[in-house]
Design brief:
By secondary structure, this protein is an alpha+beta fold. It has two domains: about 1-180, no CATH class; about 190-210 and about 260-410, no CATH class. Helix content is about 45%, strand content about 20%. The chain contains eleven helices and 14 strands. It has helices at about 15-40, 60-70, 75, 80-100, 210-230, 235-270, 280-285, 300-310, 315-325, 370-390, 395-410, and strands spanning about 1-10, 115-120, 125-130, 135-140, 145-150, 155-165, 170-180, 190-195, 200, 205, 270-275, 330-335, 360, 370. It has a seven-stranded antiparallel sheet with strand order 2-6-7-1-5-4-3. Strand 3 and strand 4 form a beta hairpin. The radius of gyration is 26 Å and the shape is globular. The two termini are about 30 Å apart.
């Protein structure tokens, strides 16, 4: 089985290399926005500006970039494949738009997601070890750049992405390697995600790594207030904006570190994890409404959205999915309806069973337990029922092991 893996490292470029990075990013942004404008000028068939009804395709724009690099000197100094990758990103954005997965592509803005990607071409991307702490990566037209080496790179290099985040340059190297995965024999578990406790396991455990946002909230609030008093475009505004960005980066790093540790601990102990199929994007939508139809309890909903996003529900699910897959496990999602209102002992369903956020007290059989743990047990049982239902012939072999483990656990 071929497995893609990404490695992200902190770069230590020279002043000249940082300038070249900025030129690469600016050129890719220019080509992306130019191609976006060109596609936006498309007219339907029969229009005076487009009588043949011809659309501008990805292949057409790639040919035009080759011609453009011959005419513009500063584009010729940029690696051509990096510009092609920018066009590929635009083509993917339009595909997602037409298939209803995303909104219409927007122009790229300087200072927002500054990055460029270089694919592997004739071993142009190479890596070498310098000493115990440092290594170097060679990129086309950029030469060797030092980076902080905290882990070894395994597999064959496919591409490298250089990005600017928090005032530092980073490189993400994607590799491909063939690995053998055997089905996991570890027991299954159900997990209920919450706003007070990050994860409640059906085994009776409660996992709460702490709030990354609360740890830095005072610093962030003061920095944002100071930024609001600065005049836009001034040097003081630019420095303060960079400071706010660094605080946001610290919060994100803290949250991702905590979620990685939680996901790794669960993946090492369990073979199958059952989650609620939650639509996090819909759950964290604003309740402000419109001027004609304003929303209600906007401040309360904003606070709830902040807590949900700080917990990182979706990120935990994404981390667990690939960590389980590497170990032969699987992640299963079930319908979350009534999971916290169903008694795991007698099976009765009532909203009155849940006395408070943390207390579950069944009015029929008298069963008392932590409400989140009750939800996790019901989620595990729902996963067992889901996988024990009749399935397509081509799916039976892939889920047979998971069915046996979940049915035995329920």
């Amino acid at each position: 089985m071929l497995k893609l893996r990404g490695y992200k490292f902190l770069l230590k470029p020279s002043a000249e290399q940082e300038t070249r990075f900025a030129q690469q990013v600016g050129a890719c942004r220019f080509v992306y926005n130019l191609a976006l404008e060109q596609r936006g000028m498309y007219r339907p068939k029969g229009h005076p500006l487009n009588p043949d009804g011809r659309r501008v395709s990805f292949a057409d724009q790639c040919k035009q970039v080759v011609t453009l690099r011959e005419e513009v000197d500063w584009l010729a100094d940029v690696h051509g494949h990096a510009l092609i990758q920018a066009l590929k990103d635009l083509d993917k954005a339009f595909t997602n738009f037409f298939e209803g997965r995303a909104s219409y592509p927007k122009p790229r803005v300087k200072g927002v997601h500054d990055s460029f990607r270089v694919p592997q071409d004739k071993k142009a991307i190479r890596v070498k070890k310098l000493n115990g702490n440092w290594s170097a990566v060679k990129l086309p037209k950029l030469g060797w750049i030092k980076y902080r080496s905290h882990r070894a790179i395994e597999g064959e290099i496919r591409n490298a992405t250089v990005s600017l985040k928090g005032g530092h340059w980073w490189v993400s190297i994607q590799t491909e390697a063939g690995i053998e995965i055997e089905p996991s024999a570890l027991p299954p578990v159900g997990i209920d995600r919450g706003v007070v406790v990050l994860a409640a396991l059906s085994t009776g455990e409660l996992i709460e790594p702490g709030s990354a946002l609360r740890k830095h909230s005072r610093r962030l609030k003061n920095a944002q207030r100071c930024l609001a008093r600065r005049r836009r475009g001034s040097n003081r505004y630019r420095r303060q904006k960079a400071r706010v960005g660094r605080i946001h980066k610290q919060i994100a790093n803290t949250r991702r570190d905590q979620l990685h540790k939680v996901a790794l601990g669960i993946a090492r102990r369990f073979g199958t994890v059952v989650f609620e199929d939650l639509k996090t994007r819909n759950m964290t939508a604003s309740a402000a409404g419109t001027i004609e139809a304003p929303g209600r309890n906007v401040a309360q909903k904003s606070g709830l959205n902040r807590v949900i996003l700080d917990k990182g529900w979706h990120t935990l699910e994404a981390f667990l999915a690939y960590k389980l897959q590497e170990r032969g496990g699987a992640l299963v999602k079930v319908n979350p309806a009534y999971s916290s209102q169903t008694c795991p002992c007698c099976g009765s369903v009532s909203k009155h069973h849940r006395k408070s956020q943390a207390v579950f007290d069944c009015g029929d059989c008298g069963h008392k337990e932590h409400a989140d743990i009750v939800g996790a047990k019901n989620i595990l049982r729902a996963g067992a029922r889901l996988l024990s239902a009749p399935s397509e012939p081509h799916r039976r072999s892939a889920t047979r092991t998971i069915k046996r483990r979940l049915t035995h656990a329920a």
